[in-house]
Amino acid sequence: MSNKVTFIYNYSPSDLDFVNNKQIAYEGYVTRKHQVWEFSSKPAETHKNFLSGGEFDKWCNHVDSIEIDFQKEYCSSIVALTSCEGVRFEYWENVLWDFTDAVKEYTEQRNDLKEAYHSKISEESARRFLFLAPLLVDHKFHIYIDSSNGCVNVDFCTRDNGLLSTFISENGHVHYSYVAQNKKIFKITGTAKFKNSKDFIKFNKVLQML
Amino acid sequence: MNGGNQICTIINSGNASRYIRPAWFKNGTLSTVAFDLRVGPPPEGYVSHYMTTGIGIECFSSAHKIISKKMGAQTGSIALLDVSEVLAEVNDEAEPLIKFIEQGLPHCGLIYVTASQRQIQEAKATLCFLAQKNLMSTKDIAMTALNK
């Protein structure tokens, strides 16, 4: 939900040298997320335009084309993702950095302990996570790598104090389970299956549960 | 499960405590990583819990004593799971998804008896939801014990 509001500020001479008791109108957008009102100078529609205006498809084409290599330090191939032309990252690049943090933490753990015990990061699971990455920007989430199979997991907190847990398997299936309580504990569990990378945008249908 | 031919006693009731590391909390929500199997070293076939006794804060204090003895002083939290409630909430399909088994009491293990990743994901999400409802930081447990 997003409402356009106008804030009026009074600036006194002590605040700004060149302003003398001037009223300034500052327009922006207020969005309610997780019971907190947040003010943003950009409308929520900007991200909607990103998703529907062809940038998502460009992003998927780019991810499809790159080699994902976790052997290199600091996931250089992931960092190179932000050079994708025609894609604006400023709204959601924090998602990529959270992912690289999770990969770095896992790689360090794997190096500290014997490698034989921790699975290698699944590159196909990671690739599918990257398709989903732009969809996560408006949500609170935790990314981690499952050490028993190297696959990416993302947990989200929901507006009703529940949990939506997702597991991105090597074969591209995204298993999800939403658990919360109304009168009793309820669960909505399923598997999202996409045969084309650009169809990952439809995972928004599941994220609407948040 | 470790030891293929061992007979393991199944636990169907009581309070199982689990130590929750600070890193397992993000944005105020407990992550499903809290109920992942530890791959090692050495690899585990179960998720470690400790059976505890008492009611309310006594139960947390008892769990804190046991866990501190086994793991040393910790800065995270302790979650208490009512085993019969957890089994009822998680094992709601034709075949059970999890079991609790003794591993040298008070140590016990939660094992996933299904190979389905979809079912394991649902079990972990349910466990997290239940754990977060009954959770206390080790700092608060220690303070409450001191104030008694």
Note the topology.
The complex is a heterodimer of chains A (210) and B (148).
Chain A lengths: L1 E10 L10 E12 L2 E5 L4 H8 L2 H11 L10 H4 L13 H20 L10 H10 L8 E5 L6 E6 L5 E6 L5 E8 L3 E8 L11 H4 L3
Antiparallel strand pairs in A: 1-2, 2-3, 4-5, 5-6, 6-7, 7-8
Chain B lengths: L9 E2 L3 E6 L4 E2 L2 E2 L16 E6 L4 H15 L5 E6 H8 L7 E5 L4 E6 L4 H17 L1 E3 H10 L1
Antiparallel strand pairs in B: 1-7, 2-5, 2-6, 3-4, 5-8, 6-9, 7-8
Helix pairs in contact in B: 1-4
Poorly predicted parts of chain B: 1-5
Largest sheet of chain B: 7 strands, antiparallel
Q: Pairing-aware structural class of the strands and helices of chain B? A: alpha+beta
Which descriptor suits the 3D outline of chain B? globular
Note the total helix count of chain A: 6
Q: Terminal Cα separation of chain A, in Å?
A: 13 Å
Secondary-structure element string of chain A: EEEHHHHHEEEEEH
Compute the number of strand runs of chain A: 8
What average pLDDT do the residues of chain A reach?
77
Share of residues in helices of chain B: 25-40%
Quaternary status of these chains?
heterodimer
Biggest β-sheet description of chain A:
5 strands, antiparallel
Describe the strand arrangement of the main beta sheet of chain A, using strand numbers.
4-5-6-7-8
Task: Explain how this protein is built.
The complex is a heterodimer of chains A (210) and B (148). The two termini of chain A are 13 Å apart. With 210 residues, chain A is an alpha+beta fold. Helix content of chain A is 27%, strand content 29%. Chain A has helices spanning 45-52, 55-65, 76-79, 93-112, 123-132, 204-207; strands at 2-11, 22-33, 36-40, 141-145, 152-157, 163-168, 174-181, 185-192. The longest helix of chain A has 20 residues, at 93-112. In chain A, a hairpin with a 6-residue loop joins strand 4 (141-145) and strand 5. Chain A has six helices and eight strands; from the N terminus they run E-E-E-H-H-H-H-H-E-E-E-E-E-H. With 148 residues, chain B is of the alpha+beta class. Chain B has four helices and nine strands, in the order E-E-E-E-E-H-E-H-E-E-H-E-H. A seven-stranded antiparallel beta sheet of chain B has the order 1-7-8-5-2-6-9. A two-stranded antiparallel sheet of chain B has the order 3-4. Chain B is globular and about 45 Å long. Chain A binds chain B through residues 113-114, 117-119, 140-142, 144, 146-148, 153, 155-157, 162-167, 169, 175-181, 185, 187, 189-191, and chain B through 26-33, 36-43, 89, 117-118, 121-122, 124-126, 128-130, 132.
